[in-house]
Structure formats: C-alpha cells, structure tokens
Amino acid sequence: MVEQVKNNSVKYDASTIQVLEGLEAVRRRPGMYVGGTDVRALHHLVYEVVDNSIDEALAGVCDHIRVIISPDLVVSVHDNGRGIPVGIHPEKGISALQLVLTTLHAGGKFGEGAYKVSGGLHGVGVSAVNALSEWMEVTVNSDDGVVYRQRYERGIPVTGVEPIGKCDPEKTGTLVAFRFDPTIFKDADLDYSFDTLAQRFREMAFVTRGVTIDLIDQRAQPFPRQTSFYFEGGILSFVKYLNRNRTALHDPVYVEREVEGTIVEVALQYTDGFSETMLAFANTINTIDGGSHLTGFRSALTRAINDVGRKLSVLKDSDPNLTGDDVREGLTAIISVKVPDPQFESQTKVKLMNPEVRFAVETATSDAVAEFFETNSRAARKIVDKGLTASKARAAARKARDLVIRKSALESMTLPGKLADCSSRDPSNSELFIVEGDSAGGSAKQGRDRHFQAILPLRGKILNTERAGLDKILSNKEIQAMISALGCGVGEQFNLENLRYNRIILMNDADVDGAHITTLALTFFFRYMQPLIDDGHLYIAQPPLYLLKAGKDAQYLYSDTALESAVKDLGARKYTLQRYKGLGEMNPQQLWDTTMDPEQRTLVQVTIEDAAEADRVFSMLMGSDVPPRRKFIQSHAREVQNLDV
To answer: Across-strand partners of 539?
Structure first.
C-alpha cells in the first residue's frame, strides 16, 4: 500500500492544501451547515432566520414575527426586535450587519449582555443562509431613526449598508428577504410547504409565550393563505393541544423553575391511550434526538412514580420497580429548557449535550411530580395502576415477541405469512413488498425480480395498533409476520442494524380499502418501528387506476385528472378503458411494468416532518374518540374527491 502511494502520479504537497475563504466553505459543504440540499434543508434556511427573531423574543424585545412566502419563492422574515446593529465594528472595521452576515462564528450570542439565552450557538445560521441564497436583502429599522439596507448575492455584499429612509426610533426591527440558490438546491421540484412551516412555527409559539408568529403564503391566489400563532399558556397549552383528541386521566402537571441558571419548563398529562408523546426543546429549538434534558426528565418521572407507588402500597415490597417504558405509556409531555450556553451535537441542533441540564430538569421534575401526587392521590393511583397494567402487558408481549424475533436472518424453512424471500442476502440491495391478499401476492411473486425483491402477502386488514396494548399487538399473526420478515425486532429489542431489507414498500389497492390498509400499517410502523421511517426505509407504492388503449398505443393512468386529460387528447379516436379495482386484476407483467420495476415505478417515501403533528393525526384518525375524526372527514371530503395522486 505504501509503495502504491509512492508511485501515485497525484501530487500531494503544501501547494495542494486549500483554504476556503469567507462563506465558500458553506457553499462547498452545505450538508455540514443546513443538513444537505433537499427539501428539509430548504426549510432549515427559513428556520435559521426565524430562530434569530425568536432569540429577540427570548430577550424580551420582540413580540411579533411575520414570515411571507412570495410567488417567486422569496422568503421574508420581519420582526420588531432591536434590529441588527449597523455600526462599524471596532476590531474589524466594517458594519456589524455585514460582519454577522458574511462571517462564520460572528454574532451577539457568545458573550454576556445582548442575549441571556438564545438558539444561536455557533454564529453560523444566518450567514449560512446568506451563503446558500441566490440573493439576500436585509433591512434594519435602527434606533437612531434611520432605515438601512444591504444586498448580498451568494453571500457576497454587492452594496454597502446604505440609509434608505427614516423610521420611528421606537419601532425598531429587522427584515430579512432571501431566495435560495438553485445552483445549490438543484432539484427543480423543491418548494416550501406551508403546512411544514406552520407546524414549526406553532411549536415555536407554544414554547415562546407572548410572541405572535404570522405565516403568509402569497403563492395561493387570488387570496393569500395565512395563519397566526399565539399561545399565552405556553407548553401547558401545547399539552392540551396534543391531547385534545384523547381522554385525559387528570389535569396537566406544570412547573417552571430556574435551577443554577437553567430555566426549566415541564408540562405533562396522562391519557387512556397506549402511545407516549414526548417533545423536548432547548432555547425553543425542537431537539428531535433528545439529549440531557430528556434524559433528566425520564429519570425523575420513573423514580417519582415508583416512589408514590410504594407509598400508596400499589407496588408491594416484593414487586419489582416499574420501568421507564411502563410509566410512560399514555404519557404526553413537553420539556422546554432555556440554557445560557447550549451545547448541541451539531449545527442542525437535534440533540442537547449539556450535562448540567440533566440535573436541572431532574430536580424540577422530581419536585413538581411529587408535589402533584401529594395533593392528587386519586390521579397518582390511576397513573401507577396504568404503569402496572403496562408492565404486565409488556411481560406478556415479551413472551410473544420471543416467538416472532429470529435469532438469525431466517431460522426455519417455514416462513411467516407466506414470505417469498429474495435470493440476495445484501440488505442494501433488497426490498420487501407488503401486499394485502393472496391474489395480489401471487401476481407480485410472479412479476418480481427474485434476486432483490421479496413479497409478504398479508390476510385482510391488520390490527389497529392505536387502540391495542403491546401484548395484543404481538399476538396478531399478521404483525408477527411483518416483525419476523423484517428481522429487526420490536420495542425494547428493536435493532435497525438487523433490518433485512433497505426498502419496505406498502403495496395496496388504489381504492378506499387499500388506503385504509396502508394507514393501519403506517400506524404500526410509526408507533413501534419509527426508526425505520426516520432512516428512510419505508415507502408506499403507487399503482395505476386505469389502462387506456387507443389502437396500438397504451398508457397507464394514476388519477382521474390524468384520465380526463388523456381522453381529451385522444379527441375522436376510439379507445378502451380498464379500471383496476385491485392489484390482483393485473397480470404479473403489468404489475412489474407499473408498480415494481425500479426504472418505471413511482414510490412515495414516508417521512416525519413534524413528530407532534404526526402523533396528533394518528391519534385522531385511528384512536377511539369519534367526533374529531368525523369532523376531519367531513371537512376534507371534497379534497379527497378531487385528489390527484
């Protein structure tokens, strides 16, 4: 190997070492700063700018933020904070505004005074957005009564910080307008999602009491689509919002306390459901991977419930302690911390690392829960009883799970659920189609590429896992078949590294029953195998609705709208139309051509853009509370009728 390097013709000396100046590093490696160049990264640009405005709100100098999306995909973020300083920086000799927007690790959040707490950590956010924007204009209403503006193109200032008018010195603020750079975000289909932004801003408003966030989408014509968020109740309102389609066991528990400089807010409430919903925020940023604040909360809650269980004699001396999984069944909790010096795992800020925050959250949670139990013994007993029931169900589920989890890839020749496996043993190149019914399964088995495609037919609709305990779920034969085929286990023993297929594809009929079966499967994967979704392994196949033939020409159509357009294009030509009521009506070759051939098919990847909203939707659609579901169906019936897949 050493000899090979010596003989290599590529020169490697001091001259090959490159130094990326200014914001060029961001443009060269956008994934390091905003997580990539996909639709999530596109939305992350907006979040970074809005985070700066939220930091002004946390400092108590901003109570209104307005975000506007224009038809040409320009995003404008306007706040009534103090305005980015425009004066000359004493050390750098340029405007502070230009310094903040063109220099990494420059900002007002490192020292003390300007911000007690903030979401900004690295001084990277807004300058990274500037670097990845085709252009950006920043307008500042300064406290000296002057309005200043500066324009940038791909991170480079093309004007100075110029005065453009006068303003009321009492009405300061910052307006940041930018358009993402299409040479960086190259996918022509990239676009902002109103719903995705709305969910993010709703969360921000919940965890930042007293701030109003407006979202206006001018792409919707003739009238802009808009919404506003303001929640005086903060995270207490957030818990009530998440549980509005569930039956609560008690009034919410809420605590706000400062522990050694860290402000801790916790709100929690138990419901009669089986799933847990926990969201953790650090300086208003949703840390989706948790961190020290979530660890502290879990530890304190488990200890407090075991303590009260012993005190009430619900837990006997001979009984083992309830586990964390036991005490969190049916729990909805929001943990929000304000940390003077947050240490995140990365610039995308998905995990909080500060060790001292664990102690602060643990202390505040322990005291609050213990105090609540002292004055609400009936609620305490309900919660402990629910944990005991969960513990017994978990023990039964463990026995059932042991029957369906394989010790190796496949330990017997009798495969569950009539699994027709593929010949490849390389998970990265393999995919599993989960189909409903023997008829569709038969066509899929005959039409597939046996080398890398496996088929798992299921009988009928699987169990609704939103309304069942884990023991009942794992006793269901169809769910056992899925767990066994996937190979990565479930619950406590889930291990994504043992997944046998890179793509799990739900392939069902293109009708109402098929949609229901898909939703049942999605509910199971979301509640019990969410890492599959997070890691991008779950897909939904898109089979055609029609086969249109005119002479020798034939085309598959996937929606009623496409059919109308195709028929119109035919004019007076005669044609025949076949409506596929189910996958079983296709012969193997047709199924391959339309739905299984990687070169021709259309797959929809299942992702989770907002865990809180996904949790709410699954609870509403699949839970036991009927009125919210009826209202949802009635309000969306017309949209479904006009749906164009």
So the answer is: 505, 605
Nearest-10 Cα torsion for 394, 398, 403, 409: 120
CB contact at 8 A, 141 and 157: no
Q: Which of 329, 509, 610, 615 is catalytic?
A: 509
Considering only residues 303 and 475, tell me which one the structure prediction assigns the higher pLDDT: 303
Instruction: Write the CATH number of the domain with boundaries 425-544+588-608.
Output: 3.40.50.670
* 436 has catalytic annotation: yes
Q: How far apart are CA 490 and CA 528, in angstroms?
A: 6
Nearest to residue 349, comparing CAs of 266, 283, 293, 295? Answer: 283
Phi, psi of 439 (to 5 degrees): -65, -50
Report helix, strand or coil for 573: coil
Question: 3-state class of 607 per DSSP?
Answer: coil
Chain segment 377-386, per-residue pLDDT in tens:
999 999 999 9
Among this protein's residues, is 265 annotated catalytic? no
Q: What percent of the chain has pLDDT over 90?
A: 46
Q: What would the pLDDT profile of 332-383 be if each residue is shown by its tens digit?
A: 999 999 988 888 876 667 789 999 999 999 999 999 999 999 999 999 999 9
Looking at per-residue pLDDT, the higher value among 405 and 311 belongs to 311
Cβ-contact 84, 109 below 8 angstroms: no
Sequence-separated (6 or more) residues with CB below 8 Å from residue 246: 271, 272, 273, 332, 619, 623, 625
- Check pLDDT > 50 for residue 3: no
Beta pairing partners, 177:
76, 137
Hey, what amino acid is at 141? N
Q: In 10 A of CB 283, how many CB atoms?
A: 28
Strands (E), 415-464: 431-436, 453-458
Exposure string over 417-447, b if 16+ CB within 10 A, otherwise e = bebbbbebeebeebbbbbbbbeebbbbbbeb
Is there a contact between 533 and 573 (Cβ–Cβ < 8 Å)?
no
Catalytic residue among 56, 203, 326, 436: 436
pLDDT band at 104 (very low <50, low <70, confident <90, very high): confident
Q: What is the mean pLDDT of the chain?
A: 85
Q: φ, ψ for residue 396 (rounded to 5)?
A: -65, -40
What pLDDT score does 636 carry?
A: 63
In this structure, are residues 608 and 286 in contact, taking their beta carbons and an 8 Å threshold?
no
Asked if residues 162 and 150 have their Cβ atoms less than 8 Å apart, the reply is: yes
Considering the segment(s) 24-229 as one domain, its CATH architecture is 2-Layer Sandwich (3.30)
Nearest-angstrom CA–CA distance, 307 and 240 = 27
**β-pair partners for 280:** 335
Domain 235-400 has CATH 3.40.190.10: no
Bridge partners of 266, per DSSP, are 255, 335
Q: Which of 492, 511, 553, 597 is catalytic?
A: 511
SS3 label, residue 235: helix
Q: Is 368 helix (H, G, I), strand (E, B) or coil?
A: helix
597 catalytically annotated: no
Catalytic residue among 307, 341, 513, 585: 513
Give the mean model confidence (pLDDT) for residues 509-517: 84
CA–CA dist 87, 98 (Å, integer): 10
Catalytic residue status for 513 = yes
